[in-house]
Amino acid sequence: MKFTINRTGFTNELANVLRAISSKTTIPILTGVKLVVTDDQLVLTGSNSDITIQSTLAASEGQLGLVVEEPGAIVLQARLFNEIVKKLPAETVTLEVKTGFLTTITSGPAEFKINGQDANNYPKLPELESDKTVQLAPDLLREVIDQTRIAVSKQESRPILTGIHVLLAQDQLTAIATDSHRLAQRKVTLPAPVAAAADVVIPGVSMTELARMIPDQKDPIDLLIAENQVLFKFGHTLFYSRLLEGKYPDTSRLIPETSETDLTIDANVLLAAISRASLLSHQGRNNVVKLTIDPTQELVKISGDSADVGNVEEELQFDAITGQELAISFNPDYMGDALKSFGEVKVKLAFTSPLRPFTLVPVDDQANFVQLITPVRTF
Which residue segments constitute the domains of the chain, with CATH numbers given? Predict the structure, then answer.
């Protein structure tokens, strides 16, 4: 096995594959990166059993400068190999395996010899065939993930809640996440109806890594859902993730359909005020901020206090308030995450009572995106 490639391009692709490799795996060979060289391409694979990332580099892509002299395959210790390649002195790197698994890496005057492993012992990738396939714009997919993953549970006591619930039906994709204290739901209209409906839960960790990898490109990303795996295809990258087993709880009944008090306000204005109030709430034991709405006085106020430090109170500029007078307390970190997910837009907050969950929706797209937060009892 022998090939030469542009070091910078190779380093970038290697870094993507390394996202799936963990040093804590119980399968020793998975601490390595698999390299398979054919006559016209180099395939890099990294996996931790839950996530697998495969990148295919073609010799026809001139900017990569891939020249194959001899096909073959090897598994190299991923972290060490990556550090070596990053620190090599020349613009090109040559990798050669002659006999056994001893691998020679040369670049300019530098030469490394490291031991590899037999690529035949590396787990095989699943071959997915599915009629549950959709295409999504890269920026839209990244947005859907970022808007929902904030509500994914970090508690392993309920494993199903550590994932994002993805539903495909007709021409709509729905993504939902909840940790029992808050909920995020985003709906997207697909360019074409799906051939078959799907109801799966993708680990939040997988979706977070995927969002970091999604390139700034116009070409759509293919999403394939199989029995226990999901596959995302973009550029020359394949991103596999296992699916979580179990039934996701029915969250449709959690979102109130009516409200007693409504507030329309700029998301950034409310976010900034909550951030200031949380400076004190974070010093206390409860970490609670209070929102007071009085339609008769046309007053909206944020307040927070810590028995040991002091208190803060701030009146807010708003667009509209309707309904009943209300005072409600909540976790400022949950509220801050929800507001950040909207960006620079006007949001509508709808409340039913001081102890019932309330919703936040963007004023210009109320049907497709909702954040729900459970208030904190303070008495």
Answer: 2-121 (3.10.150.10), 133-252 (3.10.150.10), 255-373 (3.70.10.10)
